[in-house]
Amino acid sequence: xxxxxxxxxxxxxxxxxxxxxxxxxxxxxxxxxxxxxxxxxxxxxxxxxxxxxxxxxxxxxxxxxxxxxxxxxxxxxxxxxxxxxxxxxxxxxxxxxxxxxxxxxxxxxxxxxxxxxxxxxxxxxxxxxxxxxxxxxxxxxxxxxxxxxxxxxxxxxxxxxxxxxxxxxxxxxxxxxxxxxxxxxxxxxxxxxxxxxxxxxxxxxxxxxxxxxxxxxxxxxxxxxxxxxxxxxxxxxxxxxxxxxxxxxxxxxxxxxxxxxxxxxxxxxxxxxxxxxxxxxxxxxxxxx
Length: 289
Ligand code: C2E
Ligand code: MG
Ligand code: MG
Ligand code: MG
Fold this sequence. Notes:
Blueprint: E1 2-4, E2 9-11, H1 15-29, H2 31-37, E3 40-49, E4 55-66, E5 70-72, H3 78-84, H4 87-108, E6 115-119, H5 122-125, H6 130-141, E7 148-153, H7 154-158, H8 167-174, E8 177-183, H9 190-193, E9 200-203, H10 205-209, E10 211-212, E11 219-220, H11 222-237, E12 241-244, H12 250-258, E13 263-264, H13 275-284
Parallel strand pairs: 4-6, 6-7, 7-8, 8-9, 9-12, 12-13
Antiparallel strand pairs: 1-2, 3-4, 3-13, 4-5, 10-11
Helix pairs in contact: 4-6, 6-8
The protein binds ligand C2E and magnesium ion (3 copies).
């Protein structure tokens, strides 16, 4: 038994829960050494045009190739990496790796203009050195700035002081694209949004999930569909691109196209995979020309 924050309330000690917490802490304690040992890998997921299916961008998604536990997804360590601050170092490694890979694709397939989209944690975006880090990653790898997109959540955009981040304007001035990730699930301040140097909104998965076509008949949550409709109109009124996340079925892809969504990402268009899968896809599409 453990006493919960005064007021005479008691919480039941849950052995399973604490075992999980211990496992999580052990995992996160190993992060810095794992980074030094090179145990992280970046996978990439296609972001395709809903008009013609062409792959226009890829999102960089980090995984941990753990020597005993196998491939671990970011859901299990990103949150803790943010809390401990190690995300700043891990995120910088992902950024550099993603720029390196994107530059290699650009050299191998000069006809393409594949954008690489990298997630920026709030902690990283808030870090004073972020602009220099991004500028240095571009210079060292040779990747043109307009082929890099940075994804920030609504709360990251607002910064820790509750003010829109000044560094966003400096990042935009470098020529990189900025996207709001999981748009519609966070704290959206539309008055700020219209003043921010943003290029793209990524519509959060739950809205797309409301458009279902996995059974024998199509069931549509009309409220979700109307929200998507409204958000796409809002984005286009602000001259922003819209990417729908978590597109899993052809019905969703078709509905999103009808709603004038620009691009889509999700299992329907391709799961995240190693860089080699992106190369194979570029080769198949005859992108070498
Ligand atoms: P996110 O940025 O919103 O990334 C999209 C997530 O949706 C990815 O999960 C992706 O694998 C997953 N996804 C792909 N296709 C589908 C689909 O068809 N349906 C559904 N329901 N989901 C799909 P993942 O790779 O596990 O990443 C989870 C989150 O971890 C990311 O969400 C992002 O917030 C964070 N993350 C990943 N890599 C990094 C990184 O390098 N830095 C930071 N700061 N965060 C990262
Ligand atoms: Mg995952
Ligand atoms: Mg993202
Ligand atoms: Mg997202």
